[in-house]
Structures are given as C-alpha cells and as structure tokens.
From TrEMBL:
Homooctamer. This is Delta-aminolevulinic acid dehydratase. 5-aminolevulinate 2 binds at S276, Y315. Keywords: Heme biosynthesis, Lyase, Magnesium, Metal-binding, Porphyrin biosynthesis, Zinc. GO terms for molecular function: porphobilinogen synthase activity; zinc ion binding. It is an enzyme of class 4 (lyase). 5-aminolevulinate 1 binds at R206, R218. GO terms for biological process: protoporphyrinogen IX biosynthetic process. Mg(2+) binds at E235. PANTHER family: DELTA-AMINOLEVULINIC ACID DEHYDRATASE. Pfam families: ALAD. The active site is at K196 (schiff-base intermediate with substrate), K250 (schiff-base intermediate with substrate).
Length: 326
C-alpha cells in the first residue's frame, strides 16, 4: 500500500486553490468609515490610512469601495456638539443621518449600516446617560433604551439599510426592534453587537471617534474577557430572542473560539469585527519590517471565516479587496 501524500494537493498554487475550504471575497467585507461635521479629511495618528471624512471625502471613499467590489459600509459619526444624552445621535440633521442620505443618493446599491450607539455623541463618552451608583458613575440602562430606539428610527428614516446597536445595554435589541416596527421600518434588519467585550483592542477607535470615557470605563456593561462561553451564549441568545437578524463578535481575533461556539449554536449570519487595535498592530509591525502586511492580513481574515464569520467588518477592507484581485 502506498504511503499517504497530503502534499500532493499543495504542490502548486492552482492545486491549493482547487481544494480550499475557506475563501475570501470583497463582497463579504464591511468597511468602517468615520464622518465628521467639519471640512476636509483628518488623519488618525493611531490608525494609518484611516481618516475622519467630511461628506465629499466620505463619498470618494465609498466610490473607492464600490469600485473594488465592496458592497457594505458602516458609518460612525463625530458631531460638533455633544451633550449628556447624546442628542445628536438621533437628530434629523445629525452627522450620520446626513451621511446616510448622501451615500444612498449617490450609491443606492451600497448597503449602508449605521452604528447605533451614543458614545460618540455624549460629552462623557459613555453609551447612555450616566447615573450615580454605589461604585461611582455608571450608565442608566433603561434611560438609554428609548434614546437608542430613537436613534435607530432616525437612521432608518434617513435610509440606513441595517442598524447596528453597539451599546451593550440590556434589552436594546427589543427596544430597537419594537421602535422600528412601530415606525414602519419592519424591513430594516438589526445587526446586534451581541458578544462585545470590554477590550483593550479598542484604543485607536476611541481616538478616531473621540469617544474615550471621561469617567470610569465600560466594564460594567461590556463583557468580561474572562467571562467564558456561557456568558457569550447567553448574550447572543437574548439578542436572538429579541429579534436580532445578525450576530456579531467583537473583537474578532482574540475571540475566534467564542465566534465558533456562537456560530455553532445559532443559525443567524455571523459578523466578525476586526477592530482598530488589531488593525493598528498589523500596521505598526509591517511599518517596522517585522511582518508581511498582505500575507498577515489575508491570513487573519481567513481565520475569521474559518471560525464561522459570514461577513467581516475590517479597516483592512480596501487593501484586502485589492490584494484579492491580484
């Protein structure tokens, strides 16, 4: 009997491609974009290649994404005015609402996802109104729910194809689903940040969005990194029961095992969020000559797919789409 030779199937690039189980394509990427109310695009020191866009710059970047075959973007807003309740999040002329209308008018086929949260809009950087408690200031969960619901409706009214609540407030998906249905937007899906950890990988995003908490941190409402699978499954199950259409795991790279467990348990589409810190580490290491950026990024994105991701939210989306065309 001849000896087994798995290497036969790896001998050439064509053979390797023929037998791959995991494939990447630009259509499964979601490009995160930051939009501000000023003029001109602004650099972000911790995220090379990522910008805060004004509206013309945003439209140019969406055109770039469309030309590369990327069909989805998610918008994060940086308003000029912030207050204790984040009122600009649901204002009719709020920065994201205006951006949604502009993008959908120019690119009707582009799927526009709206990040539905308050942290970019509050003057304290938390995801809802603050209340004093025994351990200090914390977010008033139930006071945040109607504000998140108002924001989702405002985003849907502006033309958002999907709303994506990221605040990690208990029962936020139910509040948003009921508000959307009641306002006549029953067809708008909810992409739940179902399993979202209080992670150290978010640092660059907080500079980009101007959303670093001025008091305390988000550990009382985002998930404990050591919480384990039971907490992750419970959070995901609650969102499914409340009407979520997509489930997300955030961050993705450090929680591949969690993604796999959640994907195996539920039948909803899975979204991996390749977050700002993961992006920044690869950029810094590649700039220092420590690794091959293209090879590392594509390997990482492949890992998300292998762990169960149906879609990948990533700041590498434009580069990855170019590399896949080569």
């Amino acid at each position: 009997m001849s000896q087994p030779r798995p290497r036969r199937l790896r001998r050439t690039a064509a053979l390797r491609s023929l037998t791959r189980e995991i494939r990447l394509s630009a259509e499964m990427f979601i490009l995160p974009l930051f939009v501000h109310e000023g003029q001109g695009d602004q650099t972000i020191s911790t995220m090379p290649g990522v910008l805060r866009h004004d509206l013309p710059g945003l439209l140019a970047r969406v055109q770039e994404a469309a030309d590369l075959g990327i069909g989805s973007v998610i918008l994060f807003g940086i308003p000029d005015h912030k207050d204790a309740e984040g009122s600009q999040a649901h204002a009719e002329q709020g920065v994201v609402q205006r951006a949604i209308r502009e993008v959908k008018a120019r690119f009707p086929a582009m799927t526009v996802i709206a990040d539905t949260c308050l942290c970019e809009y509050t003057d304290h950087g938390h995801c809802g109104p603050l209340v004093a408690g025994p351990g200090g200031w914390t977010v008033d969960n139930d006071a945040a729910l109607p504000l998140l619901a108002q924001t989702a409706v405002a985003q849907a009214r502006a033309g958002a194809d999907i709303v994506a609540p990221s605040a990690m407030m208990d029962n936020q998906v139910q509040a948003i689903r009921e508000a959307l249905d009641g306002a006549g937007f029953g067809e708008v899906p909810v992409m739940a940040y179902a399993v979202k950890y209080a992670s150290g990988y978010y640092g660059p995003f907080r500079e980009a969005a101007g959303s670093a908490p001025s008091v305390g941190d988000r550990a009382s409402y985002q998930m404990d990194p050591a919480g384990g699978y039971r907490e992750a499954l419970r959070e995901a199950r609650l969102d499914v029961e409340q009407g979520a259409d997509y489930l997300m795991v955030k961050p993705a790279l450090a929680y591949l095992d969690v993604m796999r467990v959640v994907k195996d348990e539920f039948e909803l589409p899975m979204v991996a969020y390749n977050v700002s810190g993961e992006y920044a580490m690869v950029k810094a290491a590649s700039a220092a000559g420590m690794l091959d950026e293209k090879r590392t990024v594509l390997e990482t994105l492949t890992a998300f797919r292998r762990a169960g991701a149906d879609a990948i939210m990533t700041y590498h989306a434009l580069d990855a789409a170019r590399w896949l065309r080569e």
